[in-house]
Please model this.
Amino acid sequence: MLISHQGKYPNIHPSAYIAPNALVCGDVTVGPGVRVLFGAQLIAEGGAITIGAECIIMENAVLRSNLRHSLSLGNNCLVGPQAHLVGCTVADEVFIATGASVFHGATLGQGCEVRINAVVHIKTRLAPGETVPIGWVAVGTPANILPPDQHDKIWEIQKPLDFPLTVYGFERDQADMIKITRRLAEALGTHADDQILT
Model:
């Protein structure tokens, strides 16, 4: 399904395939030979989403952008089922496996692998060819790649990256769930005027 959002329309290359129940919303450019499979969602909310040539976006993957964080996917990338990417920059030939997450401001160099259920945290930079193992967490610039049981070390690196400010626009000491949900509700409310194109 193609949907306009805030006057922006998806631009789908004629050789691309969008599954009937996939959703492409707003300022999304889908390059030649791309395959967006069943249940996948590409949702541009203020920032653009650009998908390079011959990318595969598997079932139920979610790719999002927002006003402060556009998303770009280079050529020949594969995004696995139920992966979640938001506001990140991904170079060519990157593999993002099932259930992996890549967050706001992250950058993945050419040929990186983010394996099953791995996480690339906000503002993290992976060098070309780097691998995040199954279930592990990449955090910081340059990336520290740590097992999930190293929460204290992950937090030590993650805390100064300031997730609440980066993602929601609130300083950490000012962020609470009332402010966050109200801001998100306001931003998401802009979908009320979306138009289904096809």
